[in-house]
């Protein structure tokens, strides 16, 4: 015992006593992190406003990618947009792979902040970053090797398949960086910090947009104005690959900025070198919460791939050229739909962080109230987006493409989407609130049953069997969103999610 420091031992004991008292005094207040001492409305604003800005910027990057694709030389614009349409699903796969891991770290850190166990939050952050690097590298190698088979799944033209594979392989190079950026950002959200991830996103998106434009070699035509590209690169050669390369460069910048922020630390959360050493028990806790989210995301992604196969069936019925561009029309509609997704995701992020932190503070009643308030806010805002889709579908479509097939189909799909927006919001806010509480298994079960049991059969029956085409598929997709939103509402109302340990 001669080497021990009695003062340090006494200090540690006192700290443990204070932490235990903070957890057990029963007043239900959040103990640490940026949300400590904040009212519910203040906390929602602190979390949701920066995340909304972050998501808007991210959506504009996807929008800008489509915009560049729509301004490629006329000889490749349709296959390029079809290829980028499948590339959108690959980007979705990337998000799925990373979010599953991030949800586990976010949930544990949120509970740690609510209960005042700061060191546990630091340890969970370190393991999350370590796992993100390994996982990102693995997914990147996998995507590189399956790029061509994945592109061929949708039965695209040979040119569209080649362009899609080029885009996917460019994204694959940046996956380890993407993993660090996304998982690190979710961990910060778990601690109630949303401003710094948003600041990082602003820089990343600027780099992404400029890099994609310059490396594509495309001249943009906005209204009657042509914006020349100073790059000497040929858009026929570098167009789609350059778009992907710009995204990868953005990932790299985001990863280095994220590590810098985490190493400097935010309120009650910091990345320490010692916490990067593998810790089997804590890694398993993160994985146990995150694995169901990963499989939930994979379920949604696989359903999206099957939907593209349905669209391919419709295209083949029309012959080689009659229905060319259906994938592009579907992709454009999804791109605009993503803008309605943004406020739902931002408010859902607030619901997830607040639910986890209030449960960590042993206040399930406030956790329920937080999700309920967020659900109402999400429904109001997303319904407003639905009104815009219904009224201005043609104008929105023309912003990206003036191809006749796109101008005919995209407004119809957006009109269908408009009616599902209030229920879509439940699928965003309530689902994320349940995730933040650690109820990831039930979220997965609901998604699996709803998508494979309702979404795909409805899309096939209406779009392919009844031959209603792409609008029929969208009726099936949006109808299922209504049902899934009600499923999540039922789980929130009658489930025992407040008792889950993470």
Overview of this protein structure:
- The chain is mainly alpha-helical and 502 residues long.
- Helices cover 80% and strands 1% of the residues.
- It has helices at residues 6-24, 40-70, 77-115, 118-152, 158-173, 175-190, 195-216, 235-264, 280-317, 326-360, 364-400, 404-436, 440-465, 469-494, and strands at 220-222, 225-227.
- It has a two-stranded antiparallel sheet.
- It is globular and about 65 Å long.
Report the uncertain regions: 1-25, 319-323
**Percent of residues in helical segments?**
over 70%
* Neighbour order of strands in the largest sheet: 1-2
Q: What is the N-to-C order of secondary-structure elements (H for helix, E for strand)?
A: HHHHHHHEEHHHHHHH
Shape: globular
Strand tally is: 2
The main pleated sheet reads as: 2 strands, antiparallel
Number of structural domains: 1
> Which radius of gyration do the C-alpha atoms yield?
23 Å
Strand content: under 5%
Overall average pLDDT: 85
Helix count from the secondary structure assignment: 14
Q: Span between N and C termini?
A: 36 Å
Structural class: mainly alpha
Which SSEs are present, and which pair or pack?
Layout lengths: L5 H19 L15 H31 L6 H39 L2 H35 L5 H16 L1 H16 L4 H22 L3 E3 L2 E3 L7 H30 L15 H38 L8 H35 L3 H37 L3 H33 L3 H26 L3 H26 L8
Antiparallel strand pairs: 1-2
Helix pairs in contact: 2-3, 2-7, 2-10, 2-11, 3-4, 3-5, 3-6, 3-9, 3-10, 4-5, 4-6, 5-8, 6-8, 7-8, 9-13, 10-11, 10-12, 11-12, 12-14, 13-14
């Amino acid at each position: 015992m001669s080497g021990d420091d009695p003062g340090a031992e006494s200090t540690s004991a006192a700290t443990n006593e204070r932490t235990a008292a903070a957890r057990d005094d029963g007043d239900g207040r959040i103990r640490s992190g940026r949300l400590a001492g904040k009212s519910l409305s203040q906390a929602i604003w602190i979390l949701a406003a920066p995340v909304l800005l972050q998501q808007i910027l991210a959506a504009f990057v996807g929008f800008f990618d489509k915009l560049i694709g729509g301004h490629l030389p006329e000889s490749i614009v349709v296959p390029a947009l079809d290829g980028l349409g499948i590339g959108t699903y690959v980007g979705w796969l990337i998000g799925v792979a990373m979010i599953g891991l991030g949800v586990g770290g976010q949930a544990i850190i949120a509970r740690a902040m609510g209960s005042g166990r700061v060191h546990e939050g630091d340890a969970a952050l370190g393991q999350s970053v370590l796992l993100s690097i390994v996982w990102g590298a693995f997914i990147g190698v996998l995507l590189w090797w399956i790029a061509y088979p994945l592109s061929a799944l949708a039965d695209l033209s040979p040119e569209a398949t080649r362009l899609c594979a080029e885009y996917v392989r460019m994204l694959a190079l940046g996956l380890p960086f993407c993993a660090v950026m996304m998982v690190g950002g979710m961990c910060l959200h778990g601690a109630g910090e949303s401003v710094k991830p948003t600041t990082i996103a602003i820089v990343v998106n600027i780099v992404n947009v400029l890099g994609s434009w310059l490396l594509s070699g495309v001249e943009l035509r906005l209204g009657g104005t042509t914006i020349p590209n100073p790059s000497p690169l040929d858009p026929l050669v570098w167009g789609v690959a350059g778009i992907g390369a710009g995204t990868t460069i953005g990932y790299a910048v985001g990863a280095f900025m994220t590590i810098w922020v985490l190493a400097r630390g935010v309120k009650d959360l910091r990345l320490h070198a010692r916490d990067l050493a593998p810790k089997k028990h804590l890694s398993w806790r993160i994985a146990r919460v995150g694995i169901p989210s990963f499989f939930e995301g994979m379920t949604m992604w696989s359903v999206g791939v099957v939907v593209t196969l349905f669209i391919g069936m419709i295209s083949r019925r029309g012959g080689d050229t009659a229905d060319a561009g259906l994938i592009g029309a579907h992709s454009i509609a999804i791109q605009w739909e993503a803008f309605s997704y943004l406020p739902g995701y931002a408010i859902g992020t607030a619901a997830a962080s607040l639910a986890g932190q209030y449960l960590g503070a042993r206040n399930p009643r406030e956790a329920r109230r937080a999700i309920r308030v967020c659900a109402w806010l999400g429904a109001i805002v997303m319904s407003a987006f639905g009104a815009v889709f219904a009224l201005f579908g043609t104008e929105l479509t023309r912003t990206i493409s003036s191809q006749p097939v796109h101008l005919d189909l995209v407004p119809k799909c957006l009109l269908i989407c408009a009616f599902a927006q209030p229920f879509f919001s439940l699928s965003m806010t309530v689902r994320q609130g349940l995730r933040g509480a650690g109820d990831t298994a039930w979220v997965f079960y609901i998604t699996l049953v709803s998508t494979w049991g309702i979404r795909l059969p409805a899309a096939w029956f209406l779009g392919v069997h009844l031959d209603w085409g792409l609008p029929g598929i969208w009726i099936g997709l949006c109808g299922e969103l209504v049902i899934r939103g009600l499923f999540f509402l039922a789980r929130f109302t009658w489930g025992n999610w407040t008792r889950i340990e993470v």
